[in-house]
Amino acid sequence: MHIVTTIAGSDSGGGAGIQADLKTFQELKVFGTSVITALTAQNTLGVSDVLPIEVSFVEKQLKALIEDFSISAVKTGMLFSSEIIQSIARILADVNIPLIVDPVMIAKGGESLLQQEAIVALCSYLLPLATIVTPNIPEAETLTGRKIKTFADIQDAAHTLLQMGVQCVIIKGGHLTDNDYAIDYVFFEDGQSFSMQSSRIATKNTHGTGCTFSAALTAFIGRGFSIKEAIVEAKKYIQLAITYDLSIGNGHGPTNHFAYQKYKESCEVIIHET
Ligand SMILES: Nc1ncnc2c1ncn2[C@@H]1O[C@H](COP(=O)(O)OP(=O)(O)O)[C@@H](O)[C@H]1O
Ligand SMILES: Cc1ncc(COP(=O)(O)OP(=O)(O)O)c(N)n1
Fold first, then answer.
1. CATH (domain of 227)
2. pTM (2 decimals)?
3. Atom number of ligand 1 nearest to Cα 201
4. Residue nearest to atom 13 of ligand 2 (CA)
5. What whole-number distance in Å separates Cα of residue 133 and Cα of residue 186?
6. Ligand 1 centre from 90 Cα, in Å?
7. Span from the CA of 85 to the centroid of ligand 1 (angstroms)
8. Which of 73, 136, 144, 203 could disulfide-pair with 160, CB 3.0 to 4.6 Å?
9. What is the DSSP string of 226-272?
10. Counting Cβ atoms within 10 Å, is residue 56 exposed (0-12), middle (13-18) or buried (19+)?
C-alpha cells in the first residue's frame, strides 16, 4: 500500500483542505495521512474563522508520520504562517520524498489562508524542496511579483519559479474564465513544456478544485507514475470531479470524488507540446 501525506488546513465544510485531500487519496487507492496546520470554520459560503495550530504541534504530527511510515509523496496546502513553513521545510529537507506544493493563499470568498509575510518563507524555504508547484494565476502573480496577462507572462512566471529550485511548475488556468477551455501550463527544469486543455464546465461548484487537483497529483506520484503521467491523470480526476459537481450548500458547492473511477476512460484532455 502506498502511503501519502497532506500538510494542510481543515475545511469544516469538507470541500477543500485536508478533507478534500483525504477523499481524493481514498478514491485513488493510496493510504492518506495528515498534518493539520490550521482549523477553518468554513462552508460553501466562505471562511468565518481560522485557528492556527501551534508550530510545535504541527512539527510533532509530521515527525510522528516520518518516524513510522514509508511515505511515497507529500503535498502541502494551507500553511498559514512563516513559522509553520520554516518548521516543516526543516523536517522535509532531511527526507527524500517527492513534494507537491499547492501554494494556497486565498479562499474563494477572499479570506486569507496565508499571512502576507509568509510568502517570502514559501519562496525561500519550501519551493527549493518542491518536485512540483501548482499555483493558480493569482498565486503565480504573488509568488513572482508580476502581473500575468499573456502566454509570455505565464512562461516568465514559470521560469522565475523554476529558478527558485522547483523541478516542475504547473500554472493552472482555472481563473482564465474568458476561454471555453480550462488550460493548465506545465514547465520542467530541463526546458520541456506542454499544456493540457479540457472543456470549461459552467458551474459555480468549484470549491476545493485546487486542493483536489494537487491531491490527485500526489496520489499518482505516490503510486509511482511518472511526473507527466501523474499530471495528466490528475487533470482527468479534477475534470470529472467538476463535471459531476455536487450542489451541496448555498454557495460554491464541492467537487465529486466518485466520478473518476466511473468515467475516467471517457475523459478527454488534449495535450499540446510547446
Ligand atoms: N470551470 C472549470 N472547468 C474545468 N476545469 C476547471 C474549471 N475551473 C478550474 N478547473 C481546473 O481545476 C484545476 C484547479 O484550478 P484552479 O481552479 O485554477 O485552482 P484553485 O482552486 O487553486 O484556484 C485546474 O486543472 C483547472 O484547469
Ligand atoms: C482549509 C482550506 N484549504 C484550502 C482552501 C482553498 O482551496 P482551493 O482548492 O484553492 O479552493 P477554493 O478556496 O478556491 O474553493 C480552502 N478554502 N480551505
1. 3.40.1190.20
2. 0.98
3. 3
4. 107
5. 10
6. 31
7. 25
8. 144
9. -HHHHHHHHHHHHHHHHHT----SSSS-B--TTHHHHHGGG---EEE
10. exposed
> Residue 16: nearest ligand to its CA?
2
Average pLDDT by stretches of 10, the chain with 274 residues? 98 98 98 98 97 98 98 98 98 97 95 96 98 97 95 96 97 85 96 96 95 98 98 98 94 96 95 92
Number of structural domains found in the chain? 1
Rg (CA), the chain: 17
The closest-lying atom of ligand 1 relative to the alpha carbon of residue 182 is: 27
Determine the structural domain holding residue 56 and report its residue range: 3-273
End-to-end CA distance of the chain: 36
C-alpha cell at 24: 481524493
- Residue nearest to ligand 1 atom 22, measured at CA: 210
CB 184 within 8 A of CB 172: yes
**The three three-digit cell numbers of residue 72, written as one number:** 511515497
Distance 46 CA to ligand 2 centre (A): 10
